[in-house]
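[job 0412] stage=fold_complex status=start
inputs:
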Amino acid sequence: MAQKEAVQKEDRHVHVAFVGNPNCGKTTLFNAVTGAKLKVANWPGVTVEKFEGNIEYEGYELKLVDTPGIYSLSCYTIEEQVTRRCVQDDDIEVIVNVVDASSLERNLYLTLQLLELGKPVILALNMMDIVKERGLEIDLHRLPEMLGDIPVVPVSAAKRTGLDILLHAVVHHYVEGPKEDIMNYGPGIEDRLARLEDMMRSNYPSHSLTRWHAIKLLEDDEQVRREHPIEIREVADRSYEKEIIQKKYQYIEEIVEETLFHKEKKAAQTDRVDAVLTHPFWGVPVFLCIMAMVFFLTFAVGDFLKGGFEVALAGFSEAARMLLLRIHTADWLVSLVVDGIIAGVGGILTFLPNIFILFLALGILEDSGYMSRVAYVMDGIMGKVGLSGKAFLPMILGFGCTVPAIMATRALETEHDRKKVMVITPFMSCSARLPVYVLFSDMFFPENPMLPAFSMYVIGLVISILVALVMNRAEKGKVNDSLLIELPEYKRPNPRTIRTYVWNKLRDYLTKAGTTIFLASIAIWFVLNFGVTGMVGDTADSFGAAIGRFLVPVLAPAGLGLWQIVVALISGISAKEVVVSSFAVLFGVSNANSTAGMETIISNIRRFDPSFGPLNAFCLMLFVLLYVPCAATIGTIRKESGSLKFTLRLMAFQILFAWLVSVLVFQLGSLILG
Amino acid sequence: MTLYEGEVGVSYSVQGLSMEDGLTRRLQALGLNEGTRVKILNRKKQGALILSVRGTRLAVGKHITDHIEVCAAQENSVKEKEAGD
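[job 0412] stage=fold_complex status=done
writing structure:
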């Protein structure tokens, strides 16, 4: 024992990276291993999220990091660059390669690349249940042999089995160190590699990973060539990447031949589901029905759950006022807390059930594997406006929140396409605009509130596609038909994954309510309760009213000629929900989203503008849909586009466009409705 | 013939890829090389295909499938592979 102890490494901190293909269940496995103690940060230099977790196992402190899903360690996409930089780093001591056992052949390609790094690799075989379902068997003795005796551990990320064995393998393998090379590329390439390795060693004596770098040099890899400029022309006259890839796949075919057995042939369930969901004709209608269902649930179930929240909020607001008055708080402070903060923040919280249902539905769609089908289904329509079907994925995410949607444009191949999608994605109604729709539909369309609210989603979608079409025509663009996306196996959504996803989104919403909306509510309260003479009794004398009145003539043609609406719209740039909280603060309503609150708001609006009716409300919703997105989105667009000029021009376009459309609708509507 | 001209439900063997280098490399990393067997699972009017490649499904646009040269795959080996699809 003592001897074994001595052999064990002194350093008991082990850095482990989880690496794998997209859709292999890597993140689910990572969450299962690390539990809830996740740390979220960004990878250096990019806004790709980086998840880290620490656990202790057998006396070792394991620092685990989840990397973005990739197919290859090349550097064509941001995800590939991020993952590659991470695993190349000397810090990472052990690599857990998560593999979808049901598509072993493709997944092993990344495995062979990882093995070339010369670091300990552990293969976590996930999705073994699908393998079984399909009547397949994997030889778990031969597979590790053919991969150079690395540990191969069957795990189930969803059922949380095999996790202990996996962690034990990590620790054990860390102590033991890496295994020998297994790939032999044949004399022509191996000779060149040997010479390149010598060159690497003499040029960079302290460098580890020499074979990896030699291979990458032979592939004429851009990053390695830039970071390690060696004159290699006499060794390699051209890129040997094609041959190297083919050799790897040849070896994988050998592995699959020897380790994968077909017991019985079963048709994959996925193909039967796909026959309906990706049907050449029915695919699009089915997709539209699914989205309609999502929004129906969001409004109907969300509204049903809202009742409880309203009662609680009204009670809390009243209790706070009583308490503050009892302890003789100054009047202005009572007003700030109750009319400013509780009204502003609390009103937003009552929309939590709607937001919850929306993200639950989006989470299920994503985890089940349907989302990438949408890219295929919508490819024809998107192709006509010069974008690939993939461009539709950020747009769907935009129904949840525009910020991650803008980030998701990274998956697109060209800078040009990314910017185009950044222009149209803000037109997709995000969850923050939902409270505005719900409130104004309930107030002005009491018979059928779901229709105008739902129409905002359709109008947003249609406008975004039309704008893309006009842009494509203007630049004489062609039809885009270079879609390339993997369609993963359909699976039952994992409750744990969904829970994490929905909770993260709700936490973001709550955080926003506690920070941005909180501060915005205070700011609005000040702007509305103070004027040139100090604190004012009537908001009509406040700074806010002065600013609002200044802009009233601009918005009057759109039926929005009230200084209160102008103030609400301006403050809505901090976050779209603030439009609702502003109305609450403006009209002294403790909960805008309650029957009494709505009546107060309507009667107040009518006091200033007796003709304010459904058409005005519709134009307000339309304006909120189309005008500049929230500050967080603007910041993200600035960061992701890397251009302030682009961002400013986009904002100018959005304001002008929102104004034009709502003026048009109001003027035409007034004519028709007489 | 090109893969785009193929029929649903039929397997083909890839003969060559002729498109931009970056795209070629990405397809190769996904397992689409010379000699790889590909089965067309589904197709749209506008041209995107769903392919079965090495046990996974890929949705691929016309621009790409138009530049993949294929020939009909041999019958006996097709059966073997299909079981893995």
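[job 0412] summary: The radius of gyration of chain B is 12 Å.
[job 0412] exit 0
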